[in-house]
Amino acid sequence: MKKLFRWAIAGFAAAQLPLLFAKPSVAQPAASFECRTTDGIHFTVAMSRSGQTSDPIIVWTSDAFSSSGYPPARRCQEVTERLNDLLSRNGSSLSGLYLTVGRVNGQSVICSVNGTRGGCNSNNVLFTLSGDNGRNPEQVLYNLSSRATGTTIQESGGVPYVNLEQLVNQHF
After folding, report:
1. Which end of the chain, N or C, is more open, meaning fewer C-beta atoms within 10 Å of its C-beta?
2. Into how many domains does the chain fold?
3. Which residue range forms the structural domain that includes residue 67?
4. What's the pLDDT tens digit per position in 34-80?
5. If you compute the radius of gyration of the chain from its CA atoms, what whole number of angstroms results?
6. Handedness of CA 127, 143, 162, 168 (dihedral sign)
7. Residue 50 is assigned to a structural domain of this protein
């Protein structure tokens, strides 16, 4: 009986070994971004490596740039391409990337930077803001991040920064 009991305990212990070395569950990193359309509304989503689709990250409803040849559908496509280029240039990772606001060519923009010390320039603009959004770009950045519970805005020298990796992961 003692021998049977020892074998049972040894078997139970062996069955638990995989649990000791199991990796914790982590949000799937974004593998790509896609522009999608539902009921005429265009939006940008992230796709995980496992094929999971995030909730919309950016919803494109403003017609403010339509007269300049940039209706919501085109803005969605172009910004989604910029996000995919950004992902590719950063080794297929969003780690260390942030969104911030600034002015380029006299217009308010949302741009992507490496770390919380960078600023906007013509090479890192994701999209241009217009109207009320252009007058209060910090609010737009706050609105983008507040949709994703748990994403915080950091400030460096009074300039707001949103961790892009956290922002995207919170949408899954």
Report:
1. N
2. 1
3. 25-169
4. 999 999 999 999 999 999 999 999 999 999 999 999 999 999 999 99
5. 22
6. negative
7. yes
